Amino acid sequence: MKKKSFLYLMITMLGVISVAFGIILYNKIPDNVDGVLTGLGVGLVASAGISMWRFFRMEKKDPEKWKQHEIESQDERNVIIRLKAQAKAGEILQWAVMAVAWVAIFLDAPLWVILTAIGIFFFKTVLELILMSRYQKEM
Question: Which terminal Cβ of the chain has fewer Cβ within 10 Å, N or C?
Answer without folding.
Answer: C
